[in-house]
Amino acid sequence: MTNLTLEEIKLAVIGLGYVGLPLAAEFGKCRPVVGFDVNSHRIRDLRLGLDYTRELNSQELAAAKELRFSDDPSELEGCNVYIVTVPTPIDEHRQPNLTPLVKASETIGRTLKAGDIVIYESTVFPGATEEHCVPVLERISGLTFNQDFFAGYSPERINPGDKAHRVTDIMKVTSGSTPEVAEVVDQLYASIITAGTHKASSIKVAEAAKVIENTQRDLNIALVNELAMIFKRMNIDTQEVLDAAGTKWNFLPFRPGLVGGHCIGVDPYYLTHKAQAVGYHPEVILSGRRINDGMGRFVASELVKSMLDHCIQVNGARVLVMGLTFKENCPDLRNTRVIDVIRELEDYNVRVDVYDPWIDPDEAYSEYGVCPIETPPFASYDGIVIAVAHEEFKRLSVSDVRKLGRDQHIIYDLKYVLPKDSVDIRL
């Protein structure tokens, strides 16, 4: 068993993205923390008080007085508790890509000592911590699990761009590889999480709880997306239907849309991967994924149909897509499904301009080959797609948006930014 007390914990947070940085900063207000990331440019910026994710401003970073940033693995040697917050994406075949998790485990394994605890926050399938990460720690360190070192799992619940629900305001699920370690992990998080903690009975339970949070949301959105496609054929406004149904107290207020990002559009594939590995074919979950993965194609086809209905030449047309991030008021481009709309329109030989004041142009080009424009020119577009509900777009009037279109053009409002009667299509 571990003999660590809260006062003795010397913490390291591995991975300083949307999840790791806010966590490290909060812990850094009350205890020494090494914030580690392999991206040297990221470390340089954070030392200057700059956070490209816009999750924390310079004042919030400065308030974490005991947090120091490093890209040097040797600086982890003085730590005894490690929290891993690296991405867990999927590959081109929609299979879990555990490479970042494995590499982080290898880095920790080189400095792991007897009595240390490694806590994982990255979203995984049930069993991944003990079946994939722990063996790496054992192999690299030469230590024995639950004898020399221990593990925990506390799923991240960060919502990028959400200033109302910060890391301390969201209840934290915790777990450990032994009852004693589970208590230490729980106490550690309870020291900063004002919303409280929920100690799960095992690491696998905590892993499963996380992966079904987003799977449930994915399925609910898939249902509403399917309803929207049905109602389109019936010439019924989906939003009006949802408003009417929402008058019942227990109706869930989900809305149709593109489902991307690092969580909802990814996590279900982690669960289905594990389900298939144990001999079960998950029909409902994969059905929902197929619907949501096909929404970009549906949106593009709806725009093209409307352009043809209005006698607008599609071949060679020019369309403006407003927004590229996976959600509003956030620079996160990971797994954005707006790109599906763009690719589908390009297949129709449509010239697409992308405008998004939140994104890093270099990242957009590196990730998707997209060169965003700085300012949309007036009277230039045959179609305008409002794909993301950034505050900058919400402040625009109908005439502001219409000015961007040619004499004959179509506005497709995916996010209900403009009044219903002022647009040509809504999702």
Describe the 3D structure.
- By secondary structure, this protein is an alpha/beta fold.
- It has 15 helices and 13 strands.
- It has helices at residues 20-27, 40-47, 58-63, 99-109, 128-141, 179-190, 203-233, 238-245, 267-277, 283-293, 295-309, 338-347, 361-368, 391-394, 398-402, and strands at 11-14, 33-36, 67-70, 81-84, 117-120, 150-153, 172-174, 197-199, 318-322, 351-355, 381-386, 405-413, 425-426.
- A six-stranded parallel beta sheet has the order 3-2-1-4-5-6, with helices on both faces. The protein has a five-stranded parallel beta sheet with strand order 10-9-11-12-13, with helices on one face.
- β9 (318-322), α12 and β10 (351-355) form a beta-alpha-beta unit.
- α7 (203-233) crosses α9 (267-277) and α11 (295-309) packs across α12 (338-347).
- The longest helix has 31 residues, at 203-233.
Q: What Rg is obtained from the alpha carbons, in whole angstroms?
A: 23 Å
Helix content: 25-40%
Order of helices and strands: EHEHHEEHEHEEHEHHHHHEHEHEHHEE
Mean pLDDT: 95
Which band does the percent of strand residues land in?
A: 5-15%
Give the number of helices: 15
Features:
427 residues, six-stranded parallel sheet, 15 helices, 38% helix
Secondary-structure blueprint of this entry?
Layout: E1 11-14, H1 20-27, E2 33-36, H2 40-47, H3 58-63, E3 67-70, E4 81-84, H4 99-109, E5 117-120, H5 128-141, E6 150-153, E7 172-174, H6 179-190, E8 197-199, H7 203-233, H8 238-245, H9 267-277, H10 283-293, H11 295-309, E9 318-322, H12 338-347, E10 351-355, H13 361-368, E11 381-386, H14 391-394, H15 398-402, E12 405-413, E13 425-426
Parallel strand pairs: 1-2, 1-4, 2-3, 4-5, 5-6, 7-8, 9-10, 9-11, 11-12, 12-13
